[in-house]
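Fold Annotation — chain and its backbone

Encoding — discrete vocabulary of local shapes
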Amino acid sequence: MALVKSEFRAYFSEYAETPDISPLFCLGEARAILKTLPDEAIDFCMTSPPYWGQRQYQNGGIGLEEAYEDYILNLLNVFAELRRVLKPTGSFWLNLGDTYRDKKLLGIPWRITLRLMDEQGWILRNSVVWNKVKGGLDNAKDRVRNIHENIFFFVRDAGDYYFNVDAIRAKPREARVVNGAVVSATGVTGVRYKRQIELSTALTDAEKEAAFKALDAMLESIRRGETSDFRMIIRNQQRTTHSNSESVSGRARELKEKGFYFLKYHPKGSKPDDVWEILPEDTQNRHLHFAPYPQDLCKLPILASCPPGGIVLDPFCGTGTTMLVAQLLERKSVGIDVAENYLEFAEQRCYDQHYKQERLPL
């Protein structure tokens, strides 16, 4: 059963000290519940608040304001409390959709984001585009179809926040040895680079010798598995990356001074980019709550930004998707919502998942 405000703080303090990862749910308005939490108690927050003027949510709450300015102010008040309860090492991921009024796209996600930075001191680390790949029906004849939403990644302290990039890297392709020759993950053998060095008129003899030695060392690094792939940039052969200006680019300076440099691929794989293609599928066959907030949207943020043993928070948890994923990833979590029937459904989802997981080995 979901807790209420009067009992939440005591339960939270006890919950934070136990190994239990079953989510803790609380019924009530987000700001009021957050006020009961102690300072710097939460490791991570990801939430998708009700969008302004988009849906009629049960039990009212944020999103039903007459003016979007009031909606923005109400969310800012919630996020000010969130900043207080978030640890200095914590992160805040905000998914928010936009709204049209009188044919004008209001830019609500960015209005809120700019005020969070300017007025509350949040530091924006990424603006992720969630490409939903397919969208709902759109009958407008005077604009293109909207199929994306924003996810903003904020931190409190730019120099001290938790982020485990290795936890979210893609599995790299592996290098191999073919007929005694080292071949990188994408088929680089070094033969072409050796020929370019040999025939170069832009490199001195000393630079050529250094380039051959460096290339052999790189191929040996591939053989030992320390590097999965690379590209070699040779003076007057390949275009410099980023900038040709030596005052701006360290690589341009390196090219001028040495005649070459390497671009190395990380041996643990590439990190995700800032465009995520995730279908907003309703995998639960829900009838209570229709926000298209899929489980895959939460996985990367939680893995990267919430340490093992940390506490995840969603102050607008709806039917509990953030909590469900936190439980799957063995993190504690706290969900808050104003709708009791949503919380009942969320609790049942998490209980069912835990029950199935416990019995999987059988």
Q: What stands out?
A: The longest helix spans residues 340-359.
